[in-house]
Amino acid sequence: xxxxxxxxxxxxxxxxxxxxxxxAPVFGMLFDxxxxxxxxxxxxxxxxxxxxxxxxxxxxxxxxxxxxxxPEAGTARAWLYGIATNxxxxxxxxxxxxxxxxxxxxxxxxAISAGHDGRVAERVDAQQRAAQxxxxxxxxxxxxxxxxxxxxxxxxxxxxxxxxxxxxxGTVRSRLHRVRRWLRANAPEIKTESTKDNSSGEEAGESAxx
Amino acid sequence: MAKxxxxxxxxxxxxxxxxxxxxxxxxxxxxxPETRQDELSRAKAAxxxxxxxxxxxxxxxxxxxxKKRPGAWRWIAAAAAAALIPGGxxxxxxxxxxxxxxxxxxxxxxxxxxxxxxxxxxADLPLRAGQYRLSTESTWTTWxxxxxxxxxxxxxxxxxxxPADWSLPRMTRFTRTGEIRWIKGDYGTAKAxxxxxxxxxxxxxxxxxxxxxxxxxxxxxRPTSTPIxxxxxxxxxxxxxxxxxxxxxxTQDAPISTQRSKPPKTSWMTPSRxxxxxxxxxxxxxxxxxxxxxxxxxxITAPEMFDMAHSxxxxxxxxxxxxxxxCKALAKAPGITFEKNATTSDHRPVISFSVQEADRIKTxxxxxxxxxxxxxxxxxNRSDPEFPxxxxxxxxVTTQVTDKGGP
Lengths: 210, 407
Prior knowledge:
heterodimer, A: mainly alpha, B: alpha+beta, 23% helix, globular
């Protein structure tokens, strides 16, 4: 999957010193390095327009709280995504509403796919699968959704997600494993079959909801 | 790709995705959007502007995140912007991105502000005895019909005949031209839904200290209203207004204001000759005055400073040094965004100042060659839940010399 991860050109930007008397240069470089991927990540979660506001707000909050940044505790990128994640809390309802709206397309997509040629049907299948996933994502807890999407959409490593969310790396890994397993089982559509199918897969019973 | 199925209940089964299928679904959901470089430039300019202020208390305080706007209104903002361009006003597109689409914020804020402002000149049109500077402000104001839902813009022209001698009163004329640009709906819709459609009007009046001269108008003359052409059904030029987003100055006691909040108690909002003579032309001292010159002792906010400076700039013909100093003070004022790399639609270099209010962003554009205001405008915030980015008003300012003291 495509990683929306753009490394800063300067290694010093990984863990910069933000405590200098003139924060403008270093924040300018941080913005150049991380604003665009952060904007794309946020846009996927809450839409383009809100993402623009959130990017600006994230960096302004970071600037105001620059004294709290500890390079030894994590990368600047993780810190920024952590701030953005906190700001996203105010948009949870927006995001879940959008996911649910997308999920409703699943049924429509099913109807559309019938009778189309292979290429179109393939595209419709992909859309439908994404819509099914959206419905499942809407059911996740905020913490689970943040963890999954910081990895899948923002391209953060689990260690960085841990830094961003302020939780142990082991927790991130176990959470990821659990959420992905739940999604794999619960995102796909349920179909009614007249014949019994004895093939057993993963149990769908474990909910990622908290 | 491994495909497995899980029995749910009865005859229903659920397919179980593989890891690859899940990753693909994640990739397909909300595909990666385009990055808006102009938006990033704007955000970066704001960030670096804030970073340039060493006092943390002056940094912008993050408000509650905005609600997601209904996309249905985006076209309205776009239509409004498009409709404004043919009017010959300052190009309404993003002044934070230059013609090549490069991120000008890089040099805009990291480079010393003084580099640009050193080129700012406060030139004034010379006046001979008995001549006047005629300041003309051409405004397109956006209205939203409360009952009909129509959106349109009205055209107003505000003229002021400014004598060299500030002791003389200044004649003014406010004209609602009757021209309308329909953004959503049309005259027929508005009429059918009971939206009041006002007539075009002309109001003349006076501003300044003493009573107006004898002659055409009596002392303290009330504005006169003259209906012009009635709106034609089906035409594109009709008029009306629900609630003025901008109050245009018609009388001495009604200073121009694009701010809905209570203006600060300061003489800056009704500048007199005494004030203009007394204000320092040292930018640092002027900034101090801007920040503290409030009779009730309350802290002056960035939007208030913006309005105060706007008010004085607008009435300081003949005070070029003061206008230059005001620009330099504004460029360093906390909470006000300075942009140096802007041009007008006719490619004149300008600088601009913007300030964010609770529901809108206001911009003031200043000619680099004269330090005169060329344009000012306001638009709803991009995070506005109802009308994101919708232009509230857009004004072009021109000045010329005339031998007449009025129309």
